[in-house]
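lol ok so funny story. i was supposed to be doing the assay writeup but got distracted and ended up predicting the structure for this chain instead. priorities right. anyway since i did it might as well share w the group, maybe its usefull for someone
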Amino acid sequence: MMKIPMFDLTRQYTLIEKEIKEAIDRVLRSGKFILGEEVEQFEKEIATFLVVKYAIGVASGTDALYLALKALEIGRGDAVIVPAFTFFATAGAVVNAGAQPIFADIDPKTFNISVSDIERVLNTYKGPNKIRAIIPVHLYGQMADMDEIIALAKKNDLYVIEDAAQAIGAEYKGRKAGSLGDVGCFSFFPTKNLGAYGDGGMVITNDDNLAERLMILRVHGAKQKYYHQLVGINSRLDALQAAVLRLKLKYLPNWIEARCTIADRYNLLLSGINGLILPYPLPDRLHVFNQYTIRVLNYKRDYLKQFLNEAGIGTEIYYPLPLHLQQCFCHLAYREGELSECERLSKEVLSLPIFPELNELELRYIVQNIEQFLSK
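and the output, tada:
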């Protein structure tokens, strides 16, 4: 029996171990561990890669979302439209900024926020708070329908904050994830396509004033040490993570290409198996496959997950309960059945192992086990 983890970061490390140790040693010898030149260089390199003016390193992807909201002065009395099918941080950051999340349903093909449901929310919301922004999440590595979302935002005088935590390097009509909205937010959690050896995040923008506010907010709201213009937080990317990420960034295009190749192999090998719906990359986008997520029909998802686990294959469910039904949001009074696509997908989605070093033998073993289970 093979053992195939959902992620295997050790294989990647083995390939770049010497360079990683040199990068870390460079920081250790410098004696500068918080912000500094290493972070500044990484910010410049990310800005160049994403074709934006400013990249501001922060402590995590969650902080990136929170600081983006604070920089846009979104807080008490405001509301923000977010998808109900995403990682908790998207809505959690809204609440922690003092605002109210308003949940929208998703497109069942792409798993991204539904433009038509954003319109429904804008046309029907009667709550006390003012809708100030939309946070489209580029889930699993494919970008949302940004032209339509930006058009709706302009029509309704809203900000667009791109949650690109899973989508660094993804493209929409030739433009990189995070670069289309007012602000873009990234996570460098270790399992991301560009992962640190700990937590890390980035906020990007083309707006001079927003960039300055973000740089101030991440250091307790102080432009000059001990003189505080704003009430900020401590959210600084450290130099060790920046050094690791700088090194990894040069490999990112090749790693994305490898992920796309593996996704194509999955699509080919799984295409004849009944009971599955495969990922749906749109032709005007580059899907970077942070996750390769299938839908398992007829209430068989949990049984398939257990079967694969017993065969030594790691899988994950992103996400088993939509945000509008989470206990912490019960005061918002959403009812089961209200966002039906999110609820349906939460019972069907299953993410399979995908990382650049996954080999053909392992991939075929995964597919053979899926086929064996579904043929019973």
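The first strand starts at residue 54 and ends at 58. Residues 259 and 355 are 6 Å apart (CA to CA).
back to the writeup now i swear
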